[in-house]
Amino acid sequence: MAMKRGSYRTGRERVERILDASHELFVQAGYRATSLRDIAAASGISHPALLRHFGSKQEILTALVDRLDRKHGTWLADGASGAGWPLSVAEVARRNEAEAGWIPLFTALIGEATSPEHPGHELMRTRRRISKRLGVRLLGGLGGDERSVKLAAQRLGAAWDGLQILSLYFPGRIDIPGLLGAYQDDLTRHGIPAAPPATVRPPDAPPTEEAATRPAPAPRVRAFESAARLYAAHGYYGTSMQAVADGAGLTKAALVHIAPTKRALLDLVVAELTTPAPDEADPGSRLAALLARPRWQAAAEIVLMCEATTPSHPAHALMAGRLEYSLSIIERDLAAVGPAARDEVRAAAQWLLALALGGLIAWLYEPEDVELGTLIEDALPPRLHGRIAREPLAP
What residues have CB less than 8 Å from 170, skipping those under 6 apart? Predict the structure, then answer.
């Protein structure tokens, strides 16, 4: 019996090592770019030994998410009790931050798994649906009709996702518990704001004769589209130059003429995806432009942004620069409305950008259920309504 207990203990210790190594590799390189052999090597065991515990990466991913759910606490489990907010959202966010690796792992996965081809796609969709139902249940006691409560819960979830992304790009600058707690306080104090009427997107127009006879895109455009589509499905690390060339209908030599290295190709795609539109006049205009894009372009930007939260990623500096620019533009536009305390304008800008990022993620997972324009519209925290024009700007 002692031998059996020792064997069990050794097996559990090995499983924990495998999950620890997987967690680190999934965050650093992405789920798709990590192989079972990579995990075995990082765990200090052989590939056959790993297979005795996990038959696939999907099993490891599921076990890793389950372990973090059990360790970090209670947003889903306690919320399922139906007893109202078991904790403030600020306290749940603080627990998330205190659990080492929680935010980096889920930020990486939530972006990468927007692709329906990703093995974790259904897992993340299921988690999001459960969270949304709990949010509706928990906010339902604050008043408001069903549509308004659903929209408030969607905004909470979207902002939460977006704030976690921003916190990884700007460590120490984003107060996730504070911003989420303020949102909950606003809803408690003022009630659920009424949602605007539902909007219906017109169906896509059929292709015109002119479009059918349009010349084939230039090789550079084909290379961009192929790379962006592959990034959306597999991320940067999981995409090869040969795969991009094949998708673009180019030879490898022709692709190298356009972008001599894999890094140069990434820079080309990121620059194309994140370049501000010429008519970017307000914080919401670029979001509207994103909605007019094909889904794969929006997905490529989100996947790369979530993947590049680690400073070692070659797109990290580019994405951080774009986010910094977006924050500055939103702060400028908010300050132009009227005088306000700088810290409140800064917090409002962070909230709105986070809401846009998280809203786009929600739209990629469930486009049939998320009205992205409505999600963002009039989303300024109620505590700022009427105060921007009254409070003096702090020096």
Answer: 320, 323, 324
Tokens encoding 161: 């996702």
Instruction: Answer yes or no: are the C-beta atoms of 308 and 319 closer than 8 Å.
Output: yes
Please say whether the beta carbons of 175 and 167 come within 8 A.
Answer: no
Residue 366 backbone dihedrals phi, psi, to 5 degrees: -135, 70
CA distances to 105, 156, 228, 352, 370 from 181, rounded to whole Å, are: 23, 10, 37, 15, 23
What tokens appear for 356 in the block? 């846009």
Tens of pLDDT along the chain (395 residues) come to: 344 445 556 788 999 999 999 998 888 777 878 899 999 999 999 999 999 999 988 899 888 888 877 765 555 555 545 444 456 788 888 888 887 778 888 888 898 889 888 888 888 898 888 888 878 887 888 888 899 999 999 999 999 999 999 999 999 999 999 999 999 898 989 889 888 887 665 555 555 555 555 677 899 999 999 999 999 998 998 899 999 999 999 999 999 999 999 999 999 999 988 876 555 545 455 555 656 678 899 899 999 999 999 888 999 999 999 899 989 988 887 877 666 688 888 998 999 999 989 998 999 999 888 888 788 766 655 444 444 333 333 32
- Residue 126 has a CB neighbour count (10 Å cut-off) of 10
pTM, 2 dp: 0.83
Return the structure tokens found at 165: 């992304």
Is the Cβ–Cβ distance between 32 and 15 less than 8 Å? Answer: no
Residues 6+ apart with CB under 8 A from 96: 72, 73, 75, 102, 103, 164, 176
Range list for CATH 1.10.10.60 in the chain: 1-72
Q: What is the CATH T-level fold of the domain 1-72, as seen in this structure?
A: Arc Repressor Mutant, subunit A (1.10.10)
